[in-house]
Amino acid sequence: MSDLIRKDLNESLVEEIEALEAILSEEDELDLNLISGSNNLQITTRITPLTASDTSRQYVGLYLKIVVDKNLYPEEQSPKQIDLFQVRGLEEKQVRSLTKILQDLCDDPGPVLYTLMDACREYLTEHNYPTCPCSICQYHIVQEDSFVKTPCFHYFHSACFGRYLNVFKPISDEYEDDFSVHGPKSKPKKAENVLPCPVCREDMPKELWNIQTLLKEQDGTLQSNEANTGVFVKTRSLQKLQRKMTVLYEKQKEKGALVQNNFSS
Length: 265
Ligand SMILES: [Zn+2]
Ligand SMILES: [Zn+2]
Description:
Number of helices: 9
Number of strands: 8
CATH architecture of the largest domain: Roll
CATH superfamily of the largest domain: Ubiquitin Conjugating Enzyme
Mean pLDDT: 83
Strand content: 15-25%
Strand order of the largest sheet: 1-2-3-4
Oligomer: single chain
Shape: elongated
Number of domains: 3
Bound molecules: zinc ion
């Protein structure tokens, strides 16, 4: 915490933040920001699930933003605002339920910053698998699906991502659409081996994936969330028809001739 920020905060808040700084590591990206024109201190931090620092096994992640009053928090007032942003891997429903958990922890005044961060981490650890929709086909990723995780924590079905890789070609003029700042011709063409994430456009090395392997996954068919999609279902009316046809067949065999339509009466 810089001295500039420290001199502006009440003593209990300084103590709580110093304790946080001692616990958190650099990867947690703790950031303190005094909002000018108000008494608000904005505290943001990155939260990841506990996977023993094995980032390849981290499928979810988010940033937590807590806004507190620099004079009144923690003794007289609980946090004013809690926001989750840059959420990766979780679906809307889960973000809402985690937000509710965090808000419930702020019912009474008291130092709660670490408790909130810990609750987020615990939630992410319990939900460390992608349940969001694939951003290409919009079907949710289900457990049986073969999927791709980008370094920026975006998720796609392997086959969907394989098709994207297959057709993607960097085009300098169309690659970035923010013409207002640089003008349409000033963007350099990206290197051939660089691929932008289809969701956030973060550059990724193309060689992280093998197109052919991806395209072969699930034989190119997309899995929907609904059960039995594309599966032959023997309905009751079909079973009834089959029974009727069996009777008809037996009668035909017996008589060695065509049977009248009223055979069943
Ligand atoms: Zn997909
Ligand atoms: Zn991305």
